[in-house]
Amino acid sequence: MKSVTSKIRAWSARALLSVGLSAVAIALSANAAPAAAPLPKTAFVYMSPVGDAGWTYQHEQGRRAAEKALPGLQSTMVENVAEGPDSERVMRDLVQQGHQLIFATSFGYLEPALRVAAEFPQVRIEHAGGYKTAPNLNTYNARFYEGRYLAGLLAAKSSKSGIAGYVAGFPLPEVVQGINAFALGMQAVNPKAQVKVIWLNAWYDPPREREAALTLIHQGADVLTNHSGSPAVPQTAEEKGVKLIAYTSDMSRFAPKAQLAAVTHHWGPYYAQRIQALQSGQWKPQPTWGGLKSGMIELSALNAEVPKATRALIEQRRKDIVAGRFAPFSGRLVDAQGQERLAKGQLDDTAIATMNWFVQGVQGGVTSPR
Questions:
Q1: Is a pLDDT exceeding 60 seen at residue 307?
Q2: DSSP per residue, 40-69
Q3: pLDDT tens by residue, 233-278
Q4: Are 333 and 166 spatial neighbours (Cβ–Cβ below 8 Å)?
Q5: Is 267 strand, coil or helix?
Q6: Is the pLDDT of residue 96 over 70?
Q7: From edge to edge, which strands make up the β-sheet containing 297-300?
Q8: Which residue in 192, 241, 185, 194 sits closest to 213, CA to CA?
């Protein structure tokens, strides 16, 4: 009997222990952190074909980088979407297809994006280069002008004529900033340097980009750069034997001899961060203006022929900008009409963001974009 009683007691203890462990397990399960929310279905809208290089190509590389960083991310892209009504229709269609986050990657998408955001408050939109926000629309951009200043140093060191040609899209502040910073970089090396500008009034128009590049070469430019969307300017530089500082992408495949370096854009980390912010419920309108320090902009792909002394100059100035010891728009600044715009110190972000004038040494005029 004692043996049976002992066995019953042992079984009861084990049973109670099992029940207790099960209760603990249930309690832990009830109090466990909830599973992470799924990644938001994300879309990217591009104003030109993705192609092999350029503005849209770099955003597409950013999308792919975000997919790699965030396994399970469902993302899609729509290319060659015209600014205006077409972009509004495309964004509305993307919302109706279940996309929760849309990156609208061209300046002219801003007003359409604002209308879509107002119509679909549950959707989040990130607009590249814009200046207006809404409760569900954020803006982001890069300080391209920081890379342009470094490019100007390199251009001046490489130019024999002291004249650079600049093929530009629209005379918006973002583009004007880049032209001015490029000119100031050149003038830091050669005070007499000139930058000649031709406006396209288009972001992507390969035949006109080529025509503008040829005109600038005929006007004495022996270094070209651009703020436009195709490889036409690099290809023209290579064909005509002048130097090139590429923009948005490394264009060495199109201009292996001509390219000195490229001011390149890097969007992947930002895209991954904003997608995760929406996933975690932390997304909010938080305008971003990144630069060399954040890695959004780099002067990369330096040609092996660039002298060590020039590389050292560029690297030192890059470090100065990143550390806050130097700003491209600092010191005495005089515009192309001879008016003093800054006596000393440096321009603040508001003045930079609304820049609509050229520094001395820039030829071409800031004209209406339309």
A1: yes
A2: PPEEEE-SS---SSSHHHHHHHHHHHHHHH
A3: 999 999 999 999 999 999 999 999 999 999 999 999 999 999 999 9
A4: no
A5: coil
A6: yes
A7: 297-300, 259-265, 243-248, 223-227, 163-168, 194-199, 362-363
A8: 241
